[in-house]
Design a protein that fits this description.
- The structure holds two protein chains of two kinds.
- Chain A is of the alpha+beta class.
- Chain A has one domain: 2-Layer Sandwich (Folate-binding fold).
- In chain A, 18% of the residues lie in helices and 39% in strands.
- The radius of gyration of chain A is 15 Å and the shape is globular.
- Chain A starts with a strand and ends in a 5-residue tail after the last helix.
- Chain B is an alpha+beta fold.
- Chain B has a single domain (27-119, 179-270, 285-417), classed as FAD/NAD(P)-binding domain.
- Helix content of chain B is 30%, strand content 24%.
- Chain B contains twelve helices and 19 strands.
- Chain B has helices at residues 3-15, 43-56, 73-76, 88-102, 104-108, 126-141, 151-157, 185-198, 242-248, 311-324, 373-386, 410-413; strands at 33-39, 61-64, 80-81, 115-116, 119-123, 147-149, 173-177, 181-182, 202-204, 209-215, 218-224, 227-236, 256-265, 275-278, 283-287, 293-297, 333-343, 350-353, 359-363.
- In chain B, strands 1, 2, 9, 10, 11, 12, 18 and 19 form an eight-stranded mixed β-sheet that branches. An eight-stranded mixed β-sheet of chain B has the order 6-7-5-14-15-16-13-17. A three-stranded antiparallel β-sheet of chain B has the order 3-8-4, with no helix packed on it.
- The radius of gyration of chain B is 22 Å and the shape is globular.
- In chain B, 53% of the residues are buried.
- The chains are: A alpha+beta, B alpha+beta.
- The interface between A and B is medium-sized, with 25 and 24 residues.
- The structure holds flavin-adenine dinucleotide.
- The site of flavin-adenine dinucleotide has 40 residues of chain B, from helix 2, helix 3, strand 13 and strand 17.
C-alpha cells in the first residue's frame, strides 16, 4: 500500500486520494484569447521528472498541492494551498 | 550422430536454405541524410515505414528506437482488435484497421494470428445499457456488426460467464461485437519490420533521439546518441514518450502519460472463446492461444513515466474477475507488467500534420492503439508522403482541441481497449 501525507489529515492510503493534474498558471477566460483558453484547458506539460500537482483527499474533500517525481513514483512533499501560495510569493485567496 | 542431422545442419550452415531468417537486417552505420526519419520502432512507426515504402515508393527511411525493436507498448498490450466505437469518425477509422488486419498475415508473410473471437461489453447499469444501445446503432449504421443482447444470450454464447443475480453487479445485458479479435503483437512488429527492411528501410535500435532540429519553422533532422542526421521529413510515433519528444520540437500536447497494467494467469486448456469487457467493473479478459488468461483494466489513478506493477491493481481486478468467472479462483497469476499509455482527454488519437512544417505526429494512442497499427501506419504514410492530412484523419488532427471539436470515445475506450 502506498501512503500519501494529506497536509490536513496526515498519512493515508493513496486509494483515498484523487489526482488533480498539474498546477498550471491561471488564465482569465474573460480577458484571454480563445487560443490561450483552450491551451489552458487541454495542453499538458506532462513532465518526466519533478512535477507540482493538485491532489484531493476525497473523504474530507481537501484539495492540496503535492510535488512528485514521475520517473520514480516518489512523493517528495505535500502542502496546503496556503503554504504553496506563500512559497510561490503569491497572496492566498 | 544421425546422418540426417549432419546433412541438414551442414546444408543450412553452408547454403543457408534452412537457416532461420533475421527479421530485419542490422544497419550498423547511420547515413548522414534520409528522406524520412521515424522516431519510435513500435508497431506504429514500423507500419508507417512499411506503407511509405510499399505504397509511396519512399524507401530512404530510418526508423530509430532508443530501446529494442517494439519493446514499448507494442510488446505490452493485450491485443484486442475491434471496431465497435461510439463516434462515426472513430468507427470509420477502426473499421478500416479491422479490414486491413484480415489480410495482414498474407501481406506481411508472417502469421499474425489474427483470430476473431467475438467481443462482449457487459452492462451492469442502466447507463451502461444506454451506451451499449447507442454504440450498436452507430456501429450498424457504419456497417459494423454489433447488437445489444440480454443475459440469456450472453450465457448461450459464453457459457463460462457467471450471469447469476447472486453477485454485487448482475449482468443486465451486453454489446456483442462478433468480429472482435485478438492477434499476435510481436508478429505484427516483426512482420512490418521485416517487410519494410526488405524494401530498403533501415531500422536502428539503441538509437535515441535527444533533439529535433528545426530551421525557420521546419524540421530538418534529429540529434541522436549516435550523431546528427538530416531528414526531409520527421514522424514521431513514441506512445508514452509523446510529450517528451514533441517538446523537443517545441510542441505541447493534450496528453498525459499514465501507466496501464495487465497480467496473465498460468496456461490452462481452452475454456473462454470470447473477449469479455466490463466498463462498469473496470476489467477485461481473453484467453490467449497458449491458454493464458490475459487480463487488465483501466489506467492507474495517477500519471507516471514508469512501468512498475502494483498489488492494488491485481486486488481490484481479481475482486470483480472472480464474480464474472468463479473458476478463476483456482488459477495463479503468472506474470504482471505495465506500459506507459499516452492518454488524451477524448480517448481518441492525435494524428497528422503539426504547426511545424515537415514534422508529423502519431500519438495519443493511450490504451487503444494496437488495433490501429495497420490503419495508422497506412494513413500516416499517406500524410507524410503528401504533406496533407488524409480525410480519414481529419477528425483526429492536433488542432481539434482549439475548436472544442473533440472525438469523445470515453464510453467505448476507457476500459475496453
Ligand atoms: C497493458 C496494455 C494493454 C493494452 N491493450 C490494448 C488492447 O487490448 N488493444 C489495443 O488496441 N491497444 C492496447 N493497448 C495500447 C497499445 O499497446 C498502444 O497504443 C500501441 O501499442 C502503441 O504503439 P506505438 O507503436 O505507437 O508505441 P510503442 O510500441 O510504445 O513504441 C514507441 C517506441 O518509441 C520509442 N521511443 C520513445 N522515446 C524515444 C526517443 N526519444 N528516441 C527514439 N525512440 C524513442 C520507445 O522505445 C518505443 O519502442 C494497451 C497498452 C498497454 C500498456
Amino acid at each position: 500500500m502506498k501512503i500519501m501525507i494529506c497536509p490536513v489529515n496526515g498519512p493515508r492510503n493513496i486509494a483515498e486520494f484523487a489526482w488533480g493534474g498539474e498546477v498550471k498558471p491561471d488564465v482569465d477566460p474573460a480577458t484571454c484569447t480563445d487560443q490561450a483558453w483552450t491551451d489552458h484547458l487541454f495542453l499538458e506539460a506532462n513532465i518526466a521528472g519533478m512535477v507540482t500537482e493538485w491532489w484531493l483527499h476525497t473523504p474530507t474533500n481537501t484539495w492540496f498541492i503535492a510535488r512528485r517525481n514521475t520517473l520514480t513514483d516518489e512523493i517528495i512533499e505535500t502542502m496546503t494551498l496556503d503554504a504553496y501560495y506563500m512559497r510561490e510569493g503569491a497572496i492566498s485567496a | 550422430m544421425p546422418f540426417a542431422l549432419l546433412k541438414y545442419a551442414t546444408r543450412s550452415a553452408f547454403k543457408g536454405d534452412h537457416a532461420a531468417e533475421r527479421h530485419f537486417r542490422l544497419s550498423p552505420d547511420l547515413k548522414p541524410t534520409y528522406d524520412v526519419v521515424i522516431i519510435g520502432a513500435g508497431g506504429h512507426g514500423l507500419a508507417a515505414a512499411y506503407y511509405l515504402a510499399t505504397r509511396h515508393g519512399i524507401t530512404n527511411i530510418a526508423v530509430l528506437d532508443k530501446g529494442w525493436l517494439a519493446g514499448g507498448n507494442t510488446a505490452r498490450n493485450t491485443t484486442i482488435v475491434r471496431a465497435n466505437y461510439l463516434t462515426p469518425e472513430g468507427v470509420a477509422f477502426y473499421k478500416e484497421s479491422v479490414d486491413l488486419f484480415r489480410s495482414l498475415s498474407n501481406e506481411l508473410d508472417i502469421n499474425v494470428m489474427y483470430t476473431e473471437r467475438g467481443h462482449f461489453t457487459l452492462a451492469h447499469t442502466d447507463a451502461a445499457m444506454n451506451t451499449a444501445r447507442w454504440r450498436a446503432e452507430v456501429n450498424k449504421h457504419m456497417g459494423v456488426s454489433s447488437e445489444v443482447i440480454g443475459p440469456d444470450d450472453v450465457k448461450r454464447i459464453c457459457p463460462t460467464l457467471n450471469v447469476s443475480d447472486d453477485v454485487h453487479y448482475p449482468i443486465m445485458g451486453a454489446l456483442y461485437h462478433p468480429p472482435g479479435a485478438i492477434a499476435r503483437h510481436d508478429a505484427m512488429a516483426w512482420g512490418y519490420a521485416k517487410e519494410a527492411a526488405r524494401h530498403g528501410v533501415e531500422i536502428h535500435t539503441q538509437t535515441g533521439v535527444n533533439r529535433i532540429l528545426i530551421e525557420n519553422g521546419r524540421a530538418v533532422g534529429v540529434e541522436t546518441n549516435r550523431g546528427t542526421i538530416h531528414a526531409g521529413r520527421v514522424l514521431q510515433a513514441v506512445a508514452g514518450s509523446s510529450s517528451v519528444v514533441a517538446n523537443m520540437a517545441g510542441l505541447k500536447l493534450p496528453i498525459r502519460t499514465i501507466p496501464l497494467q495487465a497480467c496473465v494467469s498460468e496456461p490452462v486448456k481452452p475454456i473462454l472463446d470470447q473477449i469479455v469487457v466490463s466498463g462498469s467493473l473496470h476489467v477485461y479478459i481473453s484467453q490467449s492461444a497458449r491458454g493464458e488468461m490475459v487480463m487488465g483494466g483501466a489506467t492507474d489513478a495517477y500519471g507516471l513515466y514508469s512501468t512498475r506493477s502494483t498489488l492494488d491493481f491485481k486486488e481490484s481486478l481479481m475482486a470483480h474477475m472472480l464474480e464474472l468467472f468463479p473458476f478463476m479462483g483456482e488459477l495463479k497469476v503468472l506474470r504482471q507488467w505495465a506500459g506507459m499509455a499516452d492518454m488524451t482527454p477524448d480517448f481518441s488519437p492525435v494524428m497528422g500534420v503539426t504547426p511545424i512544417e515537415n514534422f508529423f505526429i502519431d500519438a495519443g494512442w493511450g490504451t487503444w492503439g494496437f488495433k490501429a497499427t495497420p490503419v495508422s501506419g497506412l494513413r500516416m504514410a499517406e500524410c507524410v508522403a503528401t504533406g496533407r492530412q488524409p480525410d480519414l484523419l481529419k477528425p483526429f488532427a492536433l488542432d481539434r482541441f482549439g475548436s472544442f471539436d473533440l472525438v469523445g470515445e470515453k464510453g467505448a475506450a476507457s476500459v475496453g481497449h
